[in-house]
Write a structure and sequence with these properties.
Length: 185
């Protein structure tokens, strides 16, 4: 072979290997970005769902009703009505109870967020090692199931906290009614 042909073949080989290496590097970057996007999508959606649930119940006027109206945790209805007049002491107790409940819900939300971040880091570590798209899809499904399970636990804890709140609220309102009816004797 002539020297010109050998040079052209050598140049073509070098360019092919370089293009393959650049392509492989680009695929790794795309996979890394896609893994981060998967984590952001799954975790972001779940955090948004939890925030919407907490926002929905944060606007409840505890003098008017409790949180158990939408609660599947209870098998019976908790006292939801409001006495005609609530004395100042009972109103203050209800306000303190609501603030305590809001702190409990905020802690539950922080716990969920930390659990989801941990799950996201674990998934990202596992997914970065995966080269096969099919295996990545299976790992994503497994990650989604774990996130859904964490959200279900969070939702059950919120329902339980709401139930406890409503029981304490009912006790405060019953004490307020009993105090008022003692004057009728």
């Amino acid at each position: 072979m002539s020297l010109a042909v050998v040079k052209k073949l050598l140049l073509a080989t070098v360019l092919t290997f370089t293009a393959t290496a650049v392509s492989a590097d680009r695929r790794v970057v795309i996979d890394s970005v896609s893994v981060e996007q998967i984590v952001a999508d799954v975790v972001g959606f779940t955090v948004q769902r939890a925030a919407e649930e907490l926002l929905q119940i944060s606007h409840v006027n505890v003098e008017q009703r409790g949180y158990s109206d939408r609660n599947s945790y209870t098998s019976h209805r908790v006292y939801q009505g409001r006495p005609a007049r609530i004395d100042r002491a009972s109103r203050d107790k209800l306000r303190q109870l609501k603030h305590q409940h809001q702190r409990t819900l905020a802690q539950l939300e922080r716990d969920l967020d930390s659990d989801l971040q941990e799950l996201g880091r674990d998934f990202a570590d596992d997914a970065r090692e995966t080269k096969n798209r099919r295996k990545l899809a299976k790992k994503r499904e497994k990650f989604q199931r774990k996130v859904d399970k964490a959200y279900s636990k969070f939702s059950a804890k919120v329902d339980k906290a709401n139930y406890k709140f409503d029981r304490k609220r009912a006790d405060i309102l019953q004490d307020s009614l009993a105090y008022r009816f003692d004057y009728d004797d």
